[in-house]
């Protein structure tokens, strides 16, 4: 029997969507107001879901406190109230789109979750825009 547990979290961060190898005009045409050289921010919502078999001893798939600690250490501490482009090493050469942020978060958490568990990350950039990543 496989069951999914989920934990919600949030973080606030600034970013700018642009490519260093493009002109300002091309960045502006592709990314619009998200290319603002002074950056802009979001109140990101995050849902992390882990699917696996229930441990017969504990009754848990994974202790939700353990999942909360992983999210805090891997996402909230390094991303919250940061400029993703300037302060987060993963985005030094990676455009911090919602899609790329979700993949980075998934990779960071995946290292901390048992390999026989499935992992899904849902990142809400706004109330209406979100991305889901389940791995390759």
UniProtKB/TrEMBL annotation:
Q: Which GO terms describe its molecular function?
A: 6-carboxytetrahydropterin synthase activity; metal ion binding
Give a yes or no for keyword Lyase in this entry: yes
Q: What class of enzyme is it?
A: lyase
Reactions catalysed according to its record: 7,8-dihydroneopterin 3'-triphosphate + H2O = 6-carboxy-5,6,7,8-tetrahydropterin + triphosphate + acetaldehyde + 2 H(+)
Q: Which UniProt keywords apply?
A: Lyase, Metal-binding, Queuosine biosynthesis, Zinc
**Membrane-spanning regions, if any?**
none
InterPro entries in the record, alphabetically? 6-PTP_synth/QueD (IPR007115), 6-PTP_synth/QueD_sf (IPR038418)
Taxonomically, which superkingdom? Bacteria
The record's Gene Ontology biological-process terms are:
tRNA queuosine(34) biosynthetic process
Residues that bind Zn(2+), according to the entry?
A: 15, 40, 42
Instruction: Return the similarity comment.
Output: Belongs to the PTPS family. QueD subfamily.
Q: What is this protein called?
A: 6-carboxy-5,6,7,8-tetrahydropterin synthase
Q: Where is the organism placed in the taxonomic lineage, from the top?
A: Bacteria, Pseudomonadati, Bacteroidota, Flavobacteriia, Flavobacteriales
């Amino acid at each position: 029997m496989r069951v999914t547990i989920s934990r919600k979290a949030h973080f606030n961060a600034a970013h700018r969507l642009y490519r260093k190898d493009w002109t300002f005009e091309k960045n502006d045409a592709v990314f619009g107001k998200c290319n603002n050289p002074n950056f802009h921010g979001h109140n990101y919502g995050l849902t992390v879901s882990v699917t696996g078999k229930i441990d017969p001893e504990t009754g848990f798939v994974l202790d939700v406190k353990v999942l909360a600690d992983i999210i805090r250490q891997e996402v909230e501490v390094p991303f919250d109230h940061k400029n993703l482009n300037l302060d987060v090493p993963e985005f030094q050469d990676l455009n911090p789109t919602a899609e790329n942020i979700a993949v980075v978060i998934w990779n960071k958490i995946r290292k901390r979750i048992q390999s026989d568990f499935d992992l899904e990350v849902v990142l809400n950039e706004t109330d209406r825009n979100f991305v889901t990543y389940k791995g390759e």
